[in-house]
Each structure stands twice: as C-alpha cells, then as structure tokens.
Amino acid sequence: MVDKLKYYYSVGVRGLIYCVVPTNFHYLFIFVQSKLQWNSEADVEVLIDEFMKNYYGPASTAIRLELQSEFWYNDLDVDIVISDP
C-alpha cells in the first residue's frame, strides 16, 4: 500500500477515489490512507496504533489483535486507474 502511494505521488497523482474499501475497519482504512496521502513516509503501524488508541480507547489492544487476524490486513493493496477528463 505505502509503496504504491509513494509511486503514485512520484508520477504526479494528487488524489485517489476508492471504489471499494474494507467494510471491517472502514474508518481505520480511511484514516491511514488519508494520513499517507499527506505524508507517504509515515509509519503505517504508528498510524494504526494512533487510530486504535483514539477510537477504541482501553479496548484498543484487543481490537488491534482482531485487526491482525483480518484477511486483508497483510495483503491490503490499492490499484488506480488514471484517465484524462
């Protein structure tokens, strides 16, 4: 995910539209993607921890373990189609 966002930025892409986002942890996905679009060098794990702490509070550790069991967590990838208007 991070590598593709860095590549897109290097070739001039300045915005993305997602046709599909995960239904589980939807807000986490949007949070991390948004932060990475502002700073492609950000540490994804730090962003996830920040989101979890602020969104889930004391339950964040248990929820983080659940997140890591999600099938898309390690394989999350983003594809983009570039077209001229």
Description:
By secondary structure, this protein is mostly helical. It has one domain (1-10, 24-79). The protein has helices at 2-10, 26-38, 44-56, 60-69. Helix 2 crosses helix 3. Residues 78-85 have low confidence and may be disordered.
SSE blueprint and pairings:
Layout: H1 2-10, H2 26-38, H3 44-56, H4 60-69
Number of helices: 4
Outline the biggest β-sheet: none
| Helix and strand pattern | HHHH
Note the quaternary state here: single chain
Summed up:
The protein has helices spanning 2-10, 26-38, 44-56, 60-69. It has 85 residues and is mostly helical.
Task: Name its key features.
single chain, 85 residues, mainly alpha, 4 helices, elongated
